[in-house]
């Protein structure tokens, strides 16, 4: 069972307490953007077999949204972090690099 | 290929079963094929079969990383139905259901198609309206379904609890010619028929790269060496994203885990398939007597072929409420498969940005029922460049906003 630490209330919450919110750090494209960008924003996800950044909500707890870095192949959790960022903080990236050298993700890495 | 028949069984019985031959060959790959299909599951093998049968294209290889039918073809709950709301869905699923009717005769392999009837329970007012709408849509599409009341439900499924306190059964959408089939046999039957046509089914051979030249596919790299081809079909369900990356394009898919479980075998007690979508569980009884149970998907991206424990509890809890007599049953096995979900919960059967490369994916939680229809349509698309069955399921529908929105139509994972 997946257990994530909520960075807001500090609780180690298991899956039934949480709601998954899909891929994190999407760059939003709205009115005025090209069809291609809008399409990619709506439908194209990284869907990696490996390191995945995602949004979660501590729905049956403090109710706050937060971010998690997780491996979709092993379910290993690399860490959770604040929702108030547009990309994963340095310590999360280092934690991933220590365990998955050479991991990649869209524009930041 | 020796013909299977009652006579063959009698003949082999008289000579200690020494005359059975292997159902399909396991050859080494040739240097070149007209068509290579990646993925020897139901969809890949059916596509190969109809390429050979309908279009005479028999220089075909089907490449499989693991073993034949070992992916989602061997992991589903074997339900066959075509009671969808949208026209393109109803067309392809009904084509498949129709082909299942005489698939055993066609393949000379008993796929044990059992049109026992599929019942989708309505347990809220919203569902009543939804299913009545579907029944009307089906009437216009030529798919035989009907809306039935709770009395008829109880008559068809005596073990059901109609008067549950939270979700009473208010009626059901009933498709009499829906049912189940033996999922492995579907893959095995197609494999045997493909092999008999001279096609090569190459197992334990992983594709490691897709080779292209001037925007056209020219072959694949595999763990058994490079193989050339004119056309390539990618039909690998959960791992479609990885294959697409090799071919240089992306897919609007997310992979998640869906699980199923079976109980210990018990005496026959339910001869229809019952799906309870509000409470999220569906159940049928296999010929061995096991109750075959399927539930919901995990909520998050996941390639583990396992699934979360609490979904088992939720599914079983819902079914115990609906069928109180199963409360003491022991569960024997549980497993998961990786399903590839699209934004509109409908599949993608399409040409791709890479010339000569075709994709069949995104079946999500409901691909088994579509195998013959999907193979029929994909074969037509790959051989002629156009198929009325697959037209609406093209990759560019997301950009153009032509969704085939079954997630709203069915209101649940299908």
Automatic annotation (TrEMBL), chain A:
GO MF, one term, reads: sarcosine oxidase activity
- Pfam families registered for this protein in UniProt: SoxD
Q: Which Gene3D superfamilies match?
A: Folate-binding superfamily (3.30.2270.10)
What GO terms in the biological process aspect are recorded for it? tetrahydrofolate metabolic process
Source domain of life = Bacteria
InterPro entries per UniProt:
SoxD (IPR006279), SoxD_sf (IPR038561)
Tell me what this protein is called.
Answer: Sarcosine oxidase, delta subunit family
TrEMBL record, chain B:
Q: Which cofactor is recorded for it?
A: FAD; FMN
Task: Spell out the InterPro entries in the cross-references.
Answer: FAD-dep_OxRdtase (IPR006076), FAD/NAD-bd_sf (IPR036188), Rhodanese-like_dom (IPR001763), SoxB (IPR006278)
The subcellular location is: Cytoplasm
Q: What is its main location?
A: cytoplasm
Answer yes or no on keyword Nucleotide-binding: yes
Enzyme's top EC category: oxidoreductase
One GO location term (cellular component): cytoplasm
Domain named Rhodanese: residues = 35-79
Q: Does the keyword Cytoplasm apply?
A: yes
Name any one GO molecular function: nucleotide binding
UniProt-listed Pfam families: DAO
Q: Which GO terms describe its biological process?
A: tetrahydrofolate metabolic process
Query: Which reaction is the catalytic activity of this chain?
Result: sarcosine + (6S)-5,6,7,8-tetrahydrofolate + O2 = (6R)-5,10-methylene-5,6,7,8-tetrahydrofolate + glycine + H2O2; sarcosine + O2 + H2O = formaldehyde + glycine + H2O2
Signal peptide boundaries: none
Which keywords does this chain's UniProt record carry?
Answer: Cytoplasm, FAD, Flavoprotein, FMN, Nucleotide-binding, Oxidoreductase
Give its E.C. classification number. 1.5.3.24
Q: Which domain of life is it from?
A: Bacteria
Family the UniProt entry places it in: Belongs to the SoxB family.
Q: Which NCBIfam families match?
A: soxB
Spell out the protein name for this chain: Sarcosine oxidase subunit beta
